[in-house]
Amino acid sequence: MRRTNMLKQISIKLFIGILFLWSAISWFNHLENKKIVAEILNLKEVPLTVSNTECESWGFTDVLTTCYIEISPQEFPLLFKGYTYQKLDVSENSHNVSNRPKLGREFHVSKQFLVYPKEFIHGGAVNIYANAEMSKAILDLYIE
Q: How far, CA to CA in Å, does 106 sit from each of 68, 87, 96, 123?
């Protein structure tokens, strides 16, 4: 009986430890993704309501980074502080909008914001693909 109780206590402590470790890794990953989002958009920091971030870098010879974010529509205009974008109307699925990894929750893209930063000496672009509500976005960074 004592041995069974001791095994239960060890199991519970182990479970709590694993849960804590998973939570810490998830939080660190979220903070790291926010840094990546800020770098893509040329911002010092991202708006406070940016959440549910997923980022993936997938280039070999070029810099190719894609992120999915969710944001409060009221704060969406803050994403434009780093560059001056041209706005385009589009109609596409977020998982098919470009040749990139499929990240985040799938949504209908109705707006594209595009800039070719002069800092990208050999070429490149930053794209923001957003839903009509401006609450979800895919960010694409391409640098040659």
A: 10, 21, 9, 29
Q: Measured in whole angstroms, how far is the alpha carbon of residue 36 from the centre of its chain?
A: 8
Counting the structural domains of the chain, the total is: 1
Cα separation, 127 vs 67, in Å, equals: 11
pLDDT at 24: 47
What are the C-alpha distances in Å from 137 to residues 7, 68, 77, 95?
Answer: 47, 6, 12, 11
Q: Which domain holds residue 26?
A: 2-143
Residue 108 CA to chain centroid, in angstroms?
17
Longest dimension (CA), the chain: 72
**Residue pLDDT, tens place only, 50-70:** 999 999 987 667 789 999 999
Question: Residue 42 and residue 82: Cα distance in Å, rounded?
Answer: 5
Amino acid (1-letter code) at residue 114: L
Provide the token pair at 40.
Answer: 């893509």
Nearest 10 degrees: CA dihedral of 56, 91, 41, 47?
-100
